[in-house]
Design brief:
380 residues; Rossmann fold; 7-stranded mixed β-sheet; 8-stranded mixed β-sheet; alpha/beta; single chain
């Protein structure tokens, strides 16, 4: 019988887990055996007992002899149970940060491990239920607004009181992807006036459907890239964009930065000068902080102040809402794994467009074209 192992996450601040009792039940129904490491779900308010009730085995270590499938959130590290469970021919599914972890992927390739990076799931209709980037970005966008609201020195909504009227807060969202649109929806529900800057013109309709206002970038090329993601733009484009956006930031109380380009450093959209043009007491929450930040003053995992403007650079907001983030992520993983289950076993079909887009290593080879390294690069 095919054995699936779900380890406890070791990364500092990572509170999510890659399976839930719900997904365990579905894997068991597909004739797979599931082993959950002791304490794996506790940070997400999922104690060992609920996994046992769902039919999983709860153990202090990885299965003897390894597992056929290992489901993780963060990439495994040497010496950890998730790493020790991997063997030649096994399958690893997780948020593997393939652009930032070439050495890890090379080591796993050398061990004959098939690696599937959840970040690389193609954004096509059939794969929507597997799209972990979107499910987790939605949580990040929601939480970013709450973090900003808690740090702001004023209300979000318009208030009419006996002492007079309080105008609504003004929020600018940089980037209209999944996180940005969720930030728009959340800020609007709190009563703010919301504007959005994005280099993809098709985002305008989505922004307006949520009650936001789209900041027009006239006479500029589209920034739509592969798979609907934003593409990397040149410095001339970015400088013109900054000039337009600066006028809106000068009136903003909150800025939520979400703009990222897969595999690239985040574009700098908010300069020091733009921050210095904002009012004291304003707040910037930069979700792109792990990729360098959309604001040039952002510091990862720090809260700093510049000219009275508070800048917050969180690393992993979805993990701060670990229960629901785990529920959604585990469903994404389980849906993807079901694409590979054939009569209780695992089959990797690289002719399938979803797997072709997400599998990085297989059969001792790097098979994803973006990550193929020549023998000279490996030797060097």
């Amino acid at each position: 019988m095919t054995t699936v192992f779900v380890p406890r996450e070791r990364d500092l601040g990572e509170r999510r887990v890659a399976a839930t009792p719900e997904t365990v039940g579905r894997l068991l129904a597909a004739d797979l055996s599931v082993v959950v490491e002791t304490g794996a779900g506790e940070p997400a308010s999922l104690p060992d007992g609920v996994f046992a009730e769902a039919g999983a085995s709860v153990a202090d270590a990885a299965p003897t002899g390894g597992a056929d499938v290992v489901l993780t959130v963060a990439p495994p590290r040497h010496g950890e149970p998730a790493w020790e469970a991997l063997r030649d021919g096994s399958l690893l599914i997780g948020l593997l940060d393939p652009y930032g972890n070439p050495d890890l992927l090379e080591a796993l390739r050398g061990r004959g491990v098939t690696t599937v990076a959840m970040e690389l799931i193609p954004r096509i209709t059939r794969a929507q239920s597997m799209d972990a980037l979107s499910s987790q970005a939605s949580i990040a966008g929601y939480k970013a607004v709450l973090v900003a609201a808690a740090s702001l020195d004023r209300y979000f909504p318009l208030l009419m009181t006996a002492a007079g009227t309080i105008p609504p807060a003004r929020v600018v969202v940089m980037g209209g992807g999944v996180a940005g649109l969720q930030a728009v929806a959340t800020a609007k529900r709190l009563g703010a006036v919301v504007e959005v800057s994005d280099i993809r013109p098709e985002v305008e309709e989505q922004v307006e459907s949520l009650g936001g206002r789209f900041i027009e970038l006239p006479d500029m090329e589209t920034g739509t890239g592969e798979g609907g993601y934003a593409k990397e733009m040149g410095e001339d484009f970015l400088s013109r964009q900054r000039a337009i956006v600066a006028r809106h930031l000068a009136q903003a109380d909150v800025v939520i930065c979400t703009a990222q380009v897969p595999g690239r450093k985040a574009p700098v959209l908010v300069t020091r000068e733009m921050v210095e043009g904002m009012r004291p007491g304003a707040v910037i929450v930069d979700l792109a902080a792990p990729q360098g930040g959309n604001c040039e003053l952002t510091r990862l995992e720090e809260e700093v102040e510049h000219g009275g403007v508070r800048l917050i650079g969180p690393r992993n907001l979805p993990a701060t809402m670990a229960h629901d983030a785990s529920v959604l992520y585990a469903r994404n993983v389980e849906k993807l794994l079901h694409e590979m289950i054939v009569e209780g076993g695992i089959r990797i079909d690289l002719g399938d467009e979803v797997l072709a887009g997400a599998v990085v290593t297989h059969g001792g080879e790097t098979v994803h074209p973006r990550f193929v390294r020549s023998s000279e690069e490996v030797a060097g």
